[in-house]
């Protein structure tokens, strides 16, 4: 009968559980069935006590039977060992005891009683947990209605403890409905407590005047804020303490956050406010005006940071949360608001790369303000924004396309190489930019200004390679093309009617076609020089020095004989490793000191310098050829043996030279205005050397002279030297005539030297300032004689003040002095 009763009780319990607790919704009926279940619980306890007494009696009886069976078995084993052998024999395992029906019935009875007991006990524990968690939920609701924050926190803490106990013990599969119910209760208490505390905190924040300047004189409102803040901090402490169980049990309670809960709610209030500006039709939501919505964020920060520093930090330090800077943490919590704004506008950014540039610059200014004013130490929004490869690619393409279009528009203008400023605007030592040169420099500097705030060095280098270098390369190629075209035109055809013929012409007074061509060459020189000087300044600026430093350190790490100037070769294939080396390489020291003297623009400067030198050589070649051509008549003059009686006391420049001097003066004067002083000086030295050699070899040493002809030559050389020196841009920069044409002057000295110390020529009388102190008869024989050692002859010439012409040339000059040779032969 007892077995039947136990089975009936077990079946009844099972039917009750299966009938009333089949799903989550059925748990809501617990409060209504609680009274009936208590009566049922009492009956179950009575049956449980009866079953327990029966079980104890059965246990006693079973122990006696088991002991008796064990004793009889030992006796049989002893008897068997005597008859058969040792108990270690393998046949022992085949020994069969007598029929064990009675003991098996006893064991079955015990198992049935034990199973029934366990089920009844499990049901009792189940009901106890349900009753406990429901009472906790009711207490939490009551405390919330009474604004008892301490009671709410205790209820929430107790509910989490109940979850921990149930989740850590028992069969989770059998308790899934109970655990789900506990999870829901924990989450409900959490939501209610968090909502109430956050509401109290936010309402107090609004009453204090936020988002405007906050009024700290309202004590009751501040107390309310403190209560809400402290309750949120306590909830956060409970979550952090029970982080593992809350996450394992999937309660949806945010227990894995690193930021303090009360500060998150402060930031959430900011988020709500910023949505009004960021996601509405207001003007502050314009995509192309990021400074408008960023100013709203800065205004909010400006209003709330003093409150954080003076009040919130103190409350936070009284909580049990980890130590932190409330101001800095709050600023970090504001960043996702800005990132969401950037994400929402991403599609619009991709349509205009220059809007991306503008946003990047404003974000850089925003972050600079946070760092310098509020000492913010957190992740960079700008870096996160530009880490989007599509965003950055759109910016790079926009920079490239704009620079290319602006350059092509300027270079295609017929006046691209016209100088921008008048001659009197800039000094003689300043580069005078052409329109295309000024445009190129402005384009490069504008691009640099836009990306100077980019935190990634690799991205700055990519912009440099894609948007800046191609502009310089295009300019170099276009100037080279102009030079090649100029070289295809023979200089012989450049002069239409000669310099002298064009000077003072009615069509273009004072301007020849040759001067026009020189002006064109000079504009190319000025263009290249202006860009070169700008590139030298760029190379020494902080922006490019830092970039060069990163490139050198990357080359040092990669090794393999890499030259840092070759960084552009693999710029398009840079990966995450290159980004790390370029952006974080500042921790390493550059070992190769040869790299330090270089720079990002080093090769560009070298290219421009070579091109500038090429243009200068072309100008020099054109001038030298033209001037020597104009002196052709002077070279062909043969009447250097002058009859003083016929010429009288005339003291004029040779007729053959007088026609070429105005043209020579015009060319030199034009060059002085067209070119910088350094280039002009270099050209004048080359021209002076060319004329000096021309007069020495093609005039002085090529004709016969007497003292009168020598004096005429001295006069002509002085006139040429005066033209060469008088056109210098500043008087203090002019050189003496003797230094301009040193060999020609010495030739004139020898050819105009008197035979016996007295001059019969009026020309020589008027040109005796630099005359040789001795008569030609006194030293001419020593030089002319082939028996005189060359070194001795050189010493004689040196004492006479002649040091630029050779002994051979001096002998040649003495030989062509017909008055001296005639006297010797006589």
Automatic annotation (TrEMBL):
InterPro entries listed in its UniProt record: EXOC6PINT-1/Sec15/Tip20_C_dom2 (IPR042044), RINT1_Tip20 (IPR007528)
CC terms in the record's Gene Ontology section: Dsl1/NZR complex
Pfam family, one: RINT1_TIP1
Source domain of life: Eukaryota
Protein name: Uncharacterized protein
A GO BP entry: regulation of ER to Golgi vesicle-mediated transport
